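Write out this protein's structure.
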Amino acid sequence: MLERAGIVLTDAERAGIEVADFGLGRLDEVGLQLVVYVNTDRVCAKELVLFPGQSCPEHRHPPVDGSPGKEETFRCRTGSVRLWVDGHAEIRLRPGEQFTIPPDTLHSFTAGDVGAIVSEFSTRSRDETDVFTDPRIRR
């Protein structure tokens, strides 16, 4: 999907693609594939690749070590994605559209019929501290 979208990865980035099924073993339905370009104490940039209909379950990025939690902007590159953010009506992102999610805010997202690639620009990512609504989920 990344290649078809014209997104060029280095060999190291390709080898480092993370496949997250959140411990549920239903990757086609629940999960995502991630490429992390940079993740420092201040900024993070990733590509989130979702198969058709694949969902990232509801979660939030809580405060950690004095920070307010991760703030992230999702920008749709290909396909479409439905985004649910606490306090908002359903948001649909198509290529070129974006939305910023405040820190410590419940959200989830699901790819449309052809899947989606979403660029994430955020403050520091600490995936291990994410809080999921479903207690069965492991990161």
